[in-house]
Amino acid sequence: MGILNLTPDSFHAASQVDSMNVAATAQAMADAGADILDLGAESSRPGAHPISNDEELSRLLPALQAVREVCQLPLSIDTIRASTAAAALDAGADAINDISGGEHDPGMLSLVASHGAGLILMHKQGAPETMQDKPDYDDVVTDISAYLSQRADAAENAGVASDRILVDPGIGFGKTLEHNMKLLANLK
Q1: At what angle do helices 140-157 and 108-115 cross, to 10 degrees?
Q2: Residue 7 and residue 4: Cα distance in Å, rounded?
Q3: 41, 73, 45, 72: which is closest to 57 by C-alpha?
Q4: Distance of CA 3 to CAs 13, 160, 185, Å?
Q5: Where in the chain does DSSP place strands (E)?
Q6: pLDDT values of the chain reduced to their tens digit, one per residue, 188 residues
Q7: For 3, 77, 184, 185, which has the most beta carbons within 10 A of its beta carbon?
Q8: C-beta neighbour count of 129 within 10 angstroms
């Protein structure tokens, strides 16, 4: 997955791309062997503050159009808002990558289902502003596995086809280094 962060404050500077270079960067990622590209217009790094829906769309839609003009790889959109997801799917996106596991916006799961789109459900503990303050789990692997299973069931119950659902344990999202290492060691 090639990551195209359309934000000025991504925690991974190498993934940041501005609207002037997004098409060329997407093509370079495709040429380097990416199977899917993910575009995100709102930072979810630890300590990030939310932006407005209008700001998210103003960053996202021109970039999505530019990428779609040069690249036919599947495109996922990193958003927690159903309104943004709807606009992106209408503009040619193939999947939604929801860091809230489909919980932030009650319309997200049914929207994705109605479009027959793919869905990536991620686990995070807390909100980006505070998720790294004191992450705590009874058993990080069991807790996150159960959460992701429940969210996948919720997506299926909303009509998302099971073969269109991916889960993401959310490495670094409300987790300590120890939590992350346990998750990586137990991805199965």
Answers
A1: 60
A2: 9
A3: 41
A4: 11, 24, 24
A5: 2-5, 37-40, 75-78, 95-98, 118-122, 165-168
A6: 998 988 866 555 554 565 668 999 999 999 999 999 999 988 776 666 787 899 999 999 999 999 999 999 999 999 999 999 999 999 999 999 999 999 999 999 999 999 999 999 999 987 777 778 889 999 999 999 999 999 999 999 999 999 999 999 999 899 999 999 999 999 98
A7: 77
A8: 12
- Measured between its terminal Cα atoms, the distance across the chain in Å is 20
Closest CA to 34 of 62, 75, 69, 63: 75
Provide the token pair at 94. 């193939």
Token code pair at residue 52: 């407005």
